């Protein structure tokens, strides 16, 4: 997304990304609403099918079937589309749909963003004096670290309420191109901040929850005809698919051809999108800039029409990333296509809407030249208008009519943003229970480092304008006398000149908080990292401050991707380490709440923190997840990488201790086979036991078998706290080239000090024990699987047996 934005960055502005994002990239103050003219702001437009609106246009609404709310949506959208000429139709296929005043159809801007709050990146939404800001929740990677599904959904609900309120005021659209659900395959990826991490199942669960939070109208979650299910706002899972290189060593996303094995497509790259569509019932999917195995994703009929619309049964529209079709012609030079060839190709592949002007400018010619049928356009327009009908664009939505200014930046939403950061923050080290600090004992605080006064950095990218901001020094000054020294001129920390004053502050203060890390000058859209270390002299700053500090030293890292901080992990002068992602508008407050024990941290790393030399072992451009011995590739993500790490996926400490007791579980699954069940081969390692019937294709099974896992989590420490219980499955020993383990479920549970809570899971055996073989078949293997409960050491076997 945001090619324009990216270009701005590439021209060399290395200032905080947010300042670019807030600088509008498209003309501002053009209302996204259905204006019949170009009235800038403060619309009194409520919905299309309003008789008085038609009166003003000199039209009689009653003759327009598309406004007859007694008819089903498919009949109404057909009437609407059939009224348009070809020239009128193509003007509705870009993100700015021009409308057709002749038939009462207003214009509409499809492009709005709400990755972690209502954003003004995208011309459909803007802020001004009437609505100066919206709640800026932490960027997704931190919220993901909470492993709290209800939090993810609740944030979606808060964001969509603010979006609806802003829509009512003519400041926002109804269609939001969020969330980003690409898996973080490589720790260098610049857009890690936008995503829920490296595990495809966790990413898919995040997607399903956030999308339901954004889209679901209370009481209308389940519908028999999903094409008429009402939407609060429309959400979009992007960027489909295998998009995870931005710009690495001169390879950029506009030229990148992702060579992905079908095995990895099924197991990793497509899985979150499949969950987003099937579990989240998302109303849009966005195709990406890159090619997959030679074909630009937006031109791939197999990926779009066959998989998303056909197999997964999308109810909604497919949109391109901004200027994807142009990228296809100019950068990929795909099949030497002309502009007309390209628009014809993408329309036929199933791409309904072009974020850009290619459809608008070139589709009419493509039809005249015989390259695409008018009915291909009609099909796309119908997909688009059904979504707008479900949103109440045509008929209004009484349920949300009363929302307004007072529903944006409410105290409740600002508190939720703070809570998200508190729940996400990960405690990485806490020697001798140094944390939490007791403010009575630490009257003076040295708060040092390049992020000690972080403000907009905490908002990350795709942010809007926040309601307010609380920096770390703001928050810590409520607990003691703050001695603030930056220690570096900027995140790049190009020289040592400012280290001495920071050391002096530490020397004379009762405790020292160092806030260091990365920002968008290091990891950003359009910018991947080359290394996993802290930039410039930050390491020296941290070590030198720690050496001379009078009191305990606490290191806080702000970053999206993992950083090799082995030096700090082993430095006995650094007592505690926290990872705070980019913590959003109230980030400073959340950090201080954790440091002082007003919140007991329970977040877990949603991705592996690799050692610095990891990236020397494999190019970012290799998509293979499994180790490749011949090439010395070590494997990617916790599922396939078996080497040493700085901190593993799922890592995180607490101020209390938890014990797990396995309360019950089913230990074996017997599947009765009939003569139509054929055993599938699997590759085993040399000498491993090979069952007579190694596996069955899960499509051939009823898949009704479940196993339950009931765990008692005891808080055996002295503080209340929340524990994230992560359940993994591990395939039978001996199966070659499969994952080491994989997440199959997780729950965050609050347990009072001294108390215990039961946590129950029910797993479908096919879904939770399957492996994907080299030929991309999803198989249930026979033999002894292992269920592993977090890193508690608790595990138990499950036997899968096939009986004839
Ligand atoms: C909006 O309100 C103004 C003033 O009340 C009125 O003149 C105008 O016609 C209205 N426009 C629409 C589209 O209803
Ligand atoms: C998960 O999030 C919900 C919604 O914000 C919150 O009420 C709940 O306390 C959280 N659960 C835990 C265990 O922290
Ligand atoms: C929809 O219905 C199913 C089955 O009745 C239920 O499991 C599910 O939770 C419902 N979904 C929502 C979002 O309420
Ligand atoms: C799109 O998918 C549908 C149903 O899956 C199929 O009937 C149709 O032929 C496909 N169209 C193209 C162009 O692949
Ligand atoms: C598309 O058409 C508009 C209006 O004619 C024109 O200004 C613009 O340059 C065209 N863009 C492209 C990429 O062809
Ligand atoms: C914890 O404190 C004890 C006693 O003060 C000390 O001997 C020990 O080295 C400390 N451990 C760490 C990891 O700092
Ligand atoms: C902290 O940053 C803000 C925003 O950049 C700035 O206005 C303020 O002066 C800074 N505070 C200090 C103490 O430097
Ligand atoms: C050292 O860094 C500071 C802060 O970025 C800068 O102002 C100063 O000019 C640099 N000094 C040298 C000698 O490069
Ligand atoms: C690592 O990357 C950062 C940011 O791109 C750069 O500033 C730094 O110099 C690099 N460090 C090393 C050791 O190459
Ligand atoms: C084992 O894997 C290789 C590909 O790596 C394949 O050629 C071979 O057929 C596989 N054997 C079985 C039994 O699946
Ligand atoms: C991981 O590495 C350890 C130690 O080298 C080895 O014992 C183990 O078998 C490996 N596990 C896998 C799944 O490769
Ligand atoms: C977990 O399951 C057990 C037994 O099946 C049941 O007694 C208990 O109430 C369940 N607990 C929760 C929290 O659902």
Automatic annotation (TrEMBL):
Coiled coil: none
Alphabetical keyword list: Glycosidase, Hydrolase, Signal
Top-level taxonomic group: Eukaryota
Pfam families associated with the record: Fn3-like, Glyco_hydro_3, Glyco_hydro_3_C
Endpoints of the signal sequence: 1-23
PROSITE patterns associated with the record: PROKAR_LIPOPROTEIN
InterPro entries reported in the protein's UniProt record: BXL, Fn3-like, GH, Glyco_hydro_3_C, Glyco_hydro_3_C_sf, Glyco_hydro_3_N, Glyco_hydro_3_N_sf, Ig-like_fold
Residue ranges of domain Fibronectin type III-like in the record: 723-793
Keyword set includes Lipid biosynthesis: no
Protein name in UniProt: Fibronectin type III-like domain-containing protein
Lineage, broadest ranks: Eukaryota, Viridiplantae, Streptophyta, Embryophyta, Tracheophyta
């Amino acid at each position: 997304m945001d090619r324009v934005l990216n270009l701005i960055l590439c021209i060399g502005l290395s200032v905080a990304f947010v300042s670019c994002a807030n600088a509008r990239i498209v003309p501002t103050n053009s209302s996204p609403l259905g204006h019949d003219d170009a009235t800038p702001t403060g619309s009194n437009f409520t919905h299309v099918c309003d008789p008085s609106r038609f009166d003003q246009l000199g039209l009689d609404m009653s003759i327009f079937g598309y406004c007859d709310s007694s008819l089903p949506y498919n009949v109404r959208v057909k009437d609407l589309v059939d009224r348009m000429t070809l020239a009128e139709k193509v003007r509705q296929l870009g993100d700015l749909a021009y409308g057709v005043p002749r038939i009462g159809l207003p214009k509409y801007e499809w492009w709005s963003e709400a990755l972690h709050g209502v954003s003004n990146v995208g011309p459909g939404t803007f802020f001004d004096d009437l609505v100066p800001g919206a709640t800026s929740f932490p960027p997704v990677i931190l919220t993901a670290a909470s492993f709290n599904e209800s939090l993810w959904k609740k944030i979606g609900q808060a964001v969509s309420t603010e979006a609806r309120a802003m829509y009512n005021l003519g400041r926002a659209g109804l269609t939001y191109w969020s969330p980003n659900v690409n898996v973080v395959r490589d720790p260098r990826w610049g857009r890690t901040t936008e995503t829920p991490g490296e595990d495809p199942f966790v990413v898919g669960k995040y997607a399903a929850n956030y999308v339901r939070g954004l889209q679901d109208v209370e009481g209308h979650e389940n519908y028999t005809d999903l094409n008429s299910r009402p939407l609060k706002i429309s959400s979009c899972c992007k960027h489909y698919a295998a998009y995870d290189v931005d710009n690495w060593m001169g390879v950029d996303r506009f030229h990148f051809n992702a060579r992905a094995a079908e095995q990895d497509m099924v197991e990793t790259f497509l899985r979150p999108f499949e969950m987003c569509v099937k579990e989240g019932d998302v109303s849009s999917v966005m195709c990406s800039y890159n090619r997959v195995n030679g074909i630009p994703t937006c031109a791939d009929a197999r990926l779009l029409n066959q998989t998303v619309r056909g197999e997964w049964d999308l109810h909604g529209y497919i949109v391109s990333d901004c200027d994807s079709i142009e990228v296809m012609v100019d950068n990929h030079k795909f099949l030497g296509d002309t502009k007309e060839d390209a628009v014809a190709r993408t329309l036929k592949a199933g791409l309904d809407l072009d974020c850009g002007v290619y459809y608008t400018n070139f589709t009419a010619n493509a039809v005249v030249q015989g390259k695409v049928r008018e009915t291909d356009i009609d099909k796309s327009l119908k997909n688009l208008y059904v979504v707008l009908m479900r949103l109440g664009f045509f008929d209004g939505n009484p349920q949300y009519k009363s929302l307004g200014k007072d529903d944006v930046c409410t105290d409740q939403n600002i508190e939720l943003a703070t809570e998200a950061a508190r729940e996400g923050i990960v405690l990485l080290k806490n020697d001798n229970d140094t944390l939490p600090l007791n403010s009575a004992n630490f009257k003076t605080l040295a708060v040092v480092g390049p992020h000690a006064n972080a403000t907009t950095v905490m908002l990350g990218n795709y942010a809007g304008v926040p309601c307010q901001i609380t920096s770390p020094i703001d928050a810590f000054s409520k607990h003691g006398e703050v001695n603030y020294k930056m220690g570096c001129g900027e995140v790049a920390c190009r020289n040592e000149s400012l280290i001495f004053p920071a050391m002096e502050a530490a020397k004379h203060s009762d405790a020292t908080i160092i806030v260091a890390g990365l920002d968008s000058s290091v990891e950003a859209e359009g910018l991947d990292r080359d290394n996993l270390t802290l930039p410039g002299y930050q390491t020296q700053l941290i070590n030198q401050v720690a050496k001379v500090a009078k009191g305990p030293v606490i290191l806080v890292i702000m970053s999206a991707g993992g950083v090799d901080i082995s030096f700090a992990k082993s430095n006995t002068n650094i007592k505690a380490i926290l990872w705070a992602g980019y913590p959003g508008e109230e980030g400073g407050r959340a950090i201080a709440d954790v440091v002082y024990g007003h919140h007991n941290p329970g977040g877990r790393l949603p991705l592996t923190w690799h050692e610095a030399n990891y990236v020397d072992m494999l190019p970012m451009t290799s998509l293979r997840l499994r180790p490749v011995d011949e090439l010395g590739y070590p494997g990617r993500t916790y599922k396939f990488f078996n080497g040493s790490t700085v901190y593993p996926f799922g890592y995180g400490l607490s101020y209390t201790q938890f014990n797990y007791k396995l309360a019950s579980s089913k230990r074996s699954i017997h599947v009765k086979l009939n003569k139509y069940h054929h055993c599938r081969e699997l590759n085993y390692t040399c000498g491993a036991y090979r069952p007579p019937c190694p596996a069955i294709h899960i499509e051939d099974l009823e898949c009704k078998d479940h196993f339950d896992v009931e765990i008692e989590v005891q808080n055996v420490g002295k503080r209340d706290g929340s524990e994230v219980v992560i359940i993994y499955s591990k395939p039978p020993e001996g199966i070659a080239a499969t994952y080491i383990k994989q997440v199959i479920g997780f729950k965050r549970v609050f347990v009072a000090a001294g108390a215990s809570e039961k946590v129950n899971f029910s797993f479908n055996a096919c879904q939770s024990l399957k492996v994907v073989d080299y030929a991309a078949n999803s198989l249930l293997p026979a033999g002894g699987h292992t269920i592993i409960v977090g890193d508690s050491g608790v595990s138990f076997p499950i036997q899968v047996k096939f009986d004839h």
